[in-house]
Design goal:
The complex is a heterodimer.
Chain A: E1 17-18, H1 26-36, H2 42-54
Chain B: E1 5-9, H1 17-21, H2 23-28, E2 32-36, H3 43-47, H4 49-70, E3 75-80, H5 82-94, E4 100-106, H6 116-122, E5 128-134, H7 138-149, E6 172-177, H8 190-198, H9 204-225, E7 232-240, E8 243-252, E9 263-265, H10 269-277, E10 281-286, E11 289-290, H11 297-302, E12 307-321, E13 324-339, H12 352-363, H13 366-377
Parallel strand pairs in B: 1-2, 1-3, 3-4, 4-5, 5-6
Antiparallel strand pairs in B: 7-8, 7-13, 8-9, 10-11, 10-12, 12-13
Helix pairs in contact in B: 4-5, 9-13
Classes of the chains: A mainly alpha, B alpha/beta.
Chain lengths: 59, 384
């Protein structure tokens, strides 16, 4: 009978959270972000649109 | 925080009238002018190596004395013609013992092969350069010719006041004006030089716009995270002398004064990683420390004790890289952070609602990027 090995300590959860945005989810992301900024001041919404246009993400 | 000192240096066959004229422009941006005058320096003195060498020695002494007396770690420079040569010869001779902050070269006779890669990028002897040149500047071309044919008497000089430096680097800005050797000292440019030298301090036009956007970003974040807006803050960090520092006044709801002097390592924590990786990061407080390391002691002591979470957004052009959105040419980091409690949404990093919020806030920083980029060049806000 093989002695049971002690189970390893659980791996620590991701400590520093990195946010990655893949192109595959760009359309849904854009739609959600626009909805979120719908009531935001015009200048902020324009700043957002300027960035997504420059990044080639605008639809 | 001490004010930035700007040393001005004139050229040959002049006593530098422009040095007096530029004073109010520098003062307007909180800069302290220090005009150096080495007297009338004729062409014959320029030709002789020992008189040139004496002036370099003199400048090294002057700059060391100035820094000793003021406690400044770096000084900024505006130099014209022979003054540009003196400034860069002194820098090279000091071999790292003397460092400049930001410099404006006008009618430069510094050799075009000057090792900017080492001076700007590798050793950080200089933080940024603005080279004002004029294609019709025959004086700097004559200096280059003399440098080639007049050896061993001639200095190592070049026509960088007419043609660009050989190096192409982000911190090396080339500007062209119409005219000749005198036209580069056009009073119409003094305001831009002062703005360039004052960076990362933002001039009023850019600061107004950045603060407005910071307020708006903070309000949207508080609303979507469902926390009291009074517990959410926003601040802006930019690289300065190898660390990230807050831009004075470019903050919202930052009431804990010691934090204004924070210095963060370029790749440390969420702010540093956002800067180096070009993607958003977040971090939360856990007990006495943080979920991803603790700041070095003196910096930790400066933190607002009530701070519980930080969301760091890199300020750069958002582009697609290997199908991932990243910020390129990152110029700073916007932190949205919060006091007392960690909002529920911030505790679920994989939550699509959080990812949408982070993306919306990140992309909405575009006009802050625009302002930082323009201010770094000394340019005003065009659509103000």
């Amino acid at each position: 009978m093989t002695p049971e090995r002690p189970s390893p300590a659980p791996a620590p959860a991701e400590e520093l959270v990195q946010f990655l945005f893949g192109a595959a989810s760009a359309a849904a992301l854009l739609q959600g972000a626009r909805a979120l900024l719908e009531d935001a001041p015009r200048e902020l919404a324009e700043s957002f649109e300027q960035a997504v246009r420059a990044a080639g993400l605008a639809s | 925080m001490s004010s930035k000192i700007v040393v001005t240096l004139h050229g040959i066959r002049t006593r530098g009238q422009w040095q007096k004229q530029i004073t109010p422009y520098l003062a307007r941006h909180g800069l302290v002018p220090y005009h150096l005058d080495y007297g009338w320096f004729g062409v014959l003195s320029f030709v002789l190596p020992w008189t040139r060498a004496r002036r370099v020695q003199w400048l090294r002494r002057e700059l060391r004395d100035l820094m000793d007396r003021t406690g400044a770690r770096r000084v900024s420079i505006i130099a014209h013609s022979f003054g540009t040569w003196l400034a860069m010869e002194a820098l090279e001779a000091e071999n790292g013992n003397l460092r400049y902050d930001r410099i404006v070269l006008t009618g430069s006779i510094v050799r075009r092969a000057f090792p900017w890669q080492a001076a700007l990028a590798r050793d950080r002897w200089v933080q940024a350069v603005r080279n004002e040149r004029a294609a019709g500047d025959w004086v700097v071309r004559a200096a280059e010719l003399f440098s080639r044919v007049g050896r061993p008497l001639a200095p190592r000089a070049g026509a960088s006041g007419a043609e660009p430096f050989e190096a192409r680097l982000p911190g090396l800005q080339e500007r062209v004006v119409e005219g000749g050797h005198g036209e580069v000292l056009n009073i119409a440019n003094y305001e831009k030089w002062a703005r360039f030298l004052a960076y990362p301090q933002l001039p009023p036009d850019h600061l107004r716009r950045v603060r407005t956007l910071l307020q708006q970003i903070r309000a949207v974040a508080a609303d979507r995270l469902e926390v009291d807006a009074g517990l959410v803050r926003a601040n802006l960090f930019v690289p300065n002398a190898n660390v990230l520092r807050m831009v004075r006044g470019a903050w919202d709801n930052m009431r804990w004064a010691p934090e204004h002097e924070l210095e963060l390592e370029l790749d440390h924590g969420s702010t540093g990683r956002a800067y180096t990786d070009g993607t958003p990061f977040s971090i939360r407080r856990r007990g006495a420390g943080w979920t991803a390391g603790t700041l070095p002691g003196p910096q930790q002591e400066r933190l607002e004790p009530r701070l519980q979470w930080v969301l760091s957004l890199p300020i750069g052009r958002i582009v697609r890289h290997e199908d991932i959105a990243v910020a390129s040419e990152v110029v700073g980091v916007l932190n949205v952070d919060g006091l007392d409690t960690v909002p529920a949404l911030m505790q679920t990093p994989g939550n699509p609602a959080l990812k949408t919020l982070v993306f919306a806030l990140w992309a909405a920083t575009e006009r802050i990027r625009e302002s930082l980029a323009l201010a770094n060049l000394g340019e005003p806000l065009h659509d103000a």
